[in-house]
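sorry for the late reply, my laptop died twice this morning and i had to redo everyting from scratch. anyway the thing you sent over, i finally got around to it. pasting the sequence first so we're on the same page, its 76 residues, then the predicted structure underneath. double check i copied it right bc i was rushing
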Amino acid sequence: MVLDPDLALVVGLGLVLFSSLSLVAAWIDRRRPWVGGVICAAGLGLVALAFSTSPEGYGVTSLPMVIFGVLGRYVL
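ok and here's the structure:
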């Protein structure tokens, strides 16, 4: 089973977005951001996987279409 590059990109961007909240909360509380760092690394890994396996590549203008296409395919 092969992971869809568009799905990997959207999930990776979501993980990076949510981990940034954890990283900021740990920074404010003066704690070590272990969980946020691991989740951010996993998200960045998925984004890198998506960029390396996508046959046509991604651009800034194509990101909204990719995000809404994945939401339409897998959520709705």
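The mean pLDDT is 93.
thats about all i looked at so far, will dig more tmrw
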